[in-house]
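Thread: Newbie trying to understand structure tokens

Hi all, I'm a second-year student working on a class project, and my supervisor (Dr. K.) asked me to get a predicted structure for one chain before our next meeting. I've only ever worked with sequences, so writing a 3D structure as a token string is new to me. If someone could post the tokens and maybe explain what I'm looking at, I'd be very grateful. Here's the chain:
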Amino acid sequence: MTDGRQAQILEMVREVGSASIEQLAAHFAVTQQTIRRIVNPLCEQGLLRRVHGGVGLPVSFQNLAYQSRQKLNLEAKQKIAKAVANLIPEGASVMIGLGTTPECVALALSARTNMRILTNSLNTAVALAGNPDIEITMAGGTLRPHDRDIIGDPAAQFFSGFKADFGVFGVGGIDEDGSLLDFQVGEVQARQAIAANCRTAVLVVDATKFGRNATVRGGHFGECHHIFIDRPPLAKYQPLLREFADRTFIVNEDQFQAA
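---
Reply by user tm_fold:
Sure, no problem. This is what the structure looks like when written as tokens:
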């Protein structure tokens, strides 16, 4: 229950910029002490910051620590991953980008046979390494130790040397106009190289990415062939989903449906 309330609080704060503890307590019909217990971990993870009497958006140009992101909205990411795995057939070649949701997709594919995986993420490679029926090819370059991935020109050049059936990637954030956002230029370079060198580009995002404060722009929502989301985002993003309803899927427990 707490995880669900945390996600709702994140969306509420992103919509209006801040919220008081009193307002949140009234909205969820719980005590202010309960709200503080819910929002404190969000502040510790850097998703929110404490302001007088409440919480607001963080002022940050860096993403959260990878281990924190792995735990955040894990169930939602696993549902997305299951739906994406159902899309990808046996024997396919798949480029998988950096991030925790693509890593979940890798885990969902880990029992497949006769697959070729191309990735710039050590986390993805480790998730698949136990299966001898999956061939893994990794980008070379300098590893980012905290994220365990390779970005920038080395990753872009690596992906440009192949043409894969599918490309699976996440983003740091999605703007209201559909712009895809990340925290570093090198992350955008790697992601766009995947999109440019696959036959089917698959964007995987949980709903908290809509409106998230990432600053580097590259690519657009509508340029992806398939977009998988765990649940509908805030109302102001509904026009974007309607415009691209032919490729956007809201994931349910055991199935997915068009937005």
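A couple of things are worth pointing out once you decode it. Residues 67-258 form a domain with the Rossmann fold fold (CATH 3.40.50.1360). The mean pLDDT is 88. Feel free to ask follow-ups in this thread.
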